Amino acid sequence: MCCDVKVIALLLGLQQEFKKYCCFICEWDSRSRPLQYSRKDWPARKSLEPGIISVENQPLVEPSKILLPSMPLKLGLMKNCVKAMNQEEAAFTYL
After folding, report:
1. Does 82 have pLDDT greater than 70?
2. How many helices (H) and strands (E) does the chain have?
3. Is-above-0.85 flag for pTM?
C-alpha cells in the first residue's frame, strides 16, 4: 500500500492530533526542539499497542506492507536544499 503520511498514521492507529511521537517508524519526539537537528539516531518503534507512545487503536495493516510515496519526499528534500543555498551565488539565481 502506498499512501500519504496522514493516511498511514490513520491506518496504523496513531493519534491524529497533537501527538508527541508522530513517526510510525521510530520514536522521534516532535516536541524536543534542541534534539531535532542534532540527534541522528532515534530508537525504532517496537510495537503498535494502543495506549503506548501516541497509539490509540489497533493497526489495520502491518507496517511492513506500507510504502512511502516518493514524490513528496523528493519535493521536500529539494525545498530544504534550496533553502540551504547561498542566495547570492549564481546557482541560486539560475533556479
Report:
1. yes
2. 3, 0
3. no
